[in-house]
Amino acid sequence: MLAPGRPKPKPTPETQHFWDGCKQGKLLLQRCGDTGKAYFPPRPFSPYTGTRNVEVFEASGRAKLHSYVIHHRPVPGFTPPYAIAVVELEEGPRLMTNVVDCEQTPEALQLDMPMEVAFTPLDEEVTLPLFRPAKESK
Amino acid sequence: MIRPGEIAVVGAAESTKIGAVPGMSQIMLHADAALNAMAETGLKPGDIDGVACVGPMMPQQIAHYLGITPKWVDGTGVGGCSFMLHVRHAAAAIHAGYAKTILITHGESGKSRINATPRPPEPESLNGQFEVPYGPFGPPTLFPIPVLRYMKERGVSHEDLAMVAVVQREWAGKNPRAMFRDPITVDDVLNSRMIAYPFRILQCCLVTDGGGALILTSADRAKDFPTKPVYILGTGESVETNMVSQMKDFTSSSAFRVAGPTAIEAAGIDRSAVDHMMIYDAFAHLPLYGLEDLGFCKPGEAAGFIREGNTRPGGKLPLNTNGGGLSYTHTGMYGMFALQESIRQMRGTAPAQVEGAKISVCHGVGGMFSASGTVVFSNEKP
């Protein structure tokens, strides 16, 4: 369980499946029915063509570290210094996250290093898709 | 189609004081700047028939407070570059005949927080669901998210990003109204307090109080005003996303690449004709993105362009000559102050005046690369 005080996301009808998936240990993305391309954040239509013909699918959870900052100032629910990261999923989309099981330093956090999803409960209702360095890279 | 030079800025003023202004509420900072701009033009509130400002201040609040009955309003709010978009929309409105004399105002009690509106993140918004839970805390943690990717792809060093702040401080040293004026070195920047790696405090904008106002009218009417008209040659605008994590390319802003070239093309000018430039610098990386995305440098060359002194006093492209958001002032929505400096340079009244400058490009960014607006000014009517 994460430290208390962290802001809690509130799902909407369009994003509920994503958060339900996280709780079940599944990273659910959506795919455009016209182009086959994955997208994020969730919405019931394709940002590529506007089609409502989209499907939800389970992503691999594999990603690469795309960019980050390491915040050095206090924020409720966080212990500085902590990285606010963006990972690029194997399927293409990027998402903001935190990096766990890793020193929060520029030396430890190398761009493009392989990452894997680490589902972490925020509380009894919400689980966040955090990421850790992929096992083979350790 | 609106022609280059058809619309002019006849009034331009900042609030009487900027920096720490604990004696004024946010709405009065708007009004103080508006009254200063009206005073130099000889206009009264009853002469203004159009009003634009950006939320949280709505046009109806400003119109009522100042005693204006507008026929045209614009409350476009896309962050700190909203004023560039207001200029663009106002020029179109004057061209269309919707209004004749338009007032654009800004006021923000960013430091003293007198009557400032808090903006709590909404947990149901896309930002609230997909960014806020990971601990960003305001622009210093979000705007620099793409920087490490930019540095890796473009071969840019920490020293390069420190140099942006050093050069702008050199400009600020010439400006009595700048908040920070003492010279700094690359070492000073790299030894200053870490805020959000890779950025230290000297690479982050100030947080100040202040206001600014512009008055626009047709170039034909501009001749009747006591002020030197500054003509609008071209404008551009665009938005990308308000989630920095979803920005398509972390090394280049889509909004910049649309707004900047649209304005330059509309102006019908060659980039080599530009004498002066403002690029909204909320953080040290923005001038690099701006120089590259607007086509003044090739991708990867902006850092060297600044390092070699091209944007310094005496350089071939003087940039952010008021000291910028890093050293002059930054209320939260700095775009108005970038516009004010472009107009001072075109009027020939800037504290660090670029001698003989005839064309100024003023480029704004909205928070976290979400939006962009660009205005090309000249003191000569084409």
Automatic annotation (TrEMBL), chain A:
Species assigned in the record: Belnapia arida
Transmembrane spans: none
ChsH2 C-terminal OB-fold domain sequence ranges: 58-119
Origin: domain of life: Bacteria
Protein name: Zn-ribbon domain-containing OB-fold protein
UniProt xrefs under Pfam families: OB_ChsH2_C, zf-ChsH2
ChsH2 rubredoxin-like zinc ribbon domain: residues covered: 19-45
Signal peptide coordinates: none
Automatic annotation (TrEMBL), chain B:
TM stretches of this protein: none
Lineage, highest ranks first: Bacteria, Pseudomonadati, Pseudomonadota, Alphaproteobacteria, Acetobacterales
UniProt name for this protein: Thiolase
Source organism of this protein record: Belnapia arida
Stretch forming the signal peptide: none
Segments forming domain Thiolase C-terminal: 236-379
A Pfam family reported for this protein in Swiss-Prot or TrEMBL: Thiolase_C_1
